[in-house]
Structures are given as C-alpha cells and as structure tokens.
Write a structure and sequence with these properties.
216 residues, alpha+beta, disordered C terminus, globular, 44% helix
Amino acid sequence: MNTPSLLLAAALLPLLGGCDTLAPEKITAATPPEPAWVREARASATALPPKLMAVLSTAIQASGPADAIDVCKEAAPRMAQAASAQSGWQIRRVSLGNRNPKASPDAWERRALEAFDRSQKAGVAPAKLEHWEVVTENGQAMRRYMRALPTQPLCIQCHGTADQLGAGVAQRLQQLYPQDRATGYAVGQIRGAMTLQQPGPLDETRRQTVNELLKP
C-alpha cells in the first residue's frame, strides 16, 4: 500500500471505529391529544367552587359561620344540580372525610382521592391534581373526571381544627351532622374533589392521565 493510501486509512479508522459506539436515537412517543370532553369536564369542575365560595362568604359575613353551614347544606347540592343541568354532566363533591353522607365516594372516586393525597404528600400542588378515564359500568362506557379541591382559608372556620372553628360551629355540626368527619383540615390540604361523569360512546377507548395516578 502506498503512502497516500496509508494516510487515508489512518484518517478513516477513528470514524469507522466510532460507528459501533454511536447510541441509537431516542424516540419518544407523542402524548395523545386530550379529548374535548376532558376540557369540558375541567371547565365545569373549576367553575362551580368559586360560585359556592362566594355564596358562603356572603353568608358568613351576614350571619356567621354556624349559619353558613345551613346555607352550604342547601346551596351546594342545588348549585351542583343546576350546573349538571346546564353542562350535561352529573356533578357532585366527594371526600374521604365527608360531612354530608351523600358526599361519600364510590370505589373509583376513593382510589382517585387516595392517589391525590399521595401526590400532594410527594410535593405535587393540589391545584394541578386531576384524573380522567373512560370506564365501563353495566355495559355502558362512562366518562369520568375528578379534580382535587384544596382547603381555602375561608373553609377553616367550618373545617379546621377544634380551636379554629367559628363560633357555634361545633354545636351546629352536632345538630346537623352527628357523624361529621370533615374537620381538622389545614389550609391547602385536599378537602375532597369535584367529580363528574356522563355516558360516552360504547366504542370509546379507555384513557387516563399521563402520570397514571391510579396505578399502585
């Protein structure tokens, strides 16, 4: 081999040797687009709580936190029913520490609430916690959506620790909700969640959030 050929071979050796060490290009699957119904459910879930808070704030200012419990007892389900009729979603509030027996979660909701609590303990902001999924119930596809409800400062007067409860609240709770489990909360702690559901197409694919909150 003549000198020019030797020089060319020497120059190519590093390039040829490096071919075996090149890492394959990492291919990341694209996140599937969010269904339109999830955006609709999210909009409904985020619209109702501020309206209820405004009603309760007015009641507390007018007659105190104890009377606001009566207002909440009547206004919350009525507002949820109105929102359901307007949006086409079945809307309610649920909690692991419920006050109203009707706010007890079903099995699917309980799993989501427990996952929300774990996520908050891991440092995830409650305002970002949501879960959506299409499940089959009695042969019918159901779109289900939940969004965490963090405890607001106003809520502490009726949901805080014993020394934080407003005047007359403990007595009123004993009268209206003798089995109450909804006190002892701190500001920012997940108080419960908005839960929405509506029938979906029978062939709709089962989906859930990217972080798959409900996985064990």
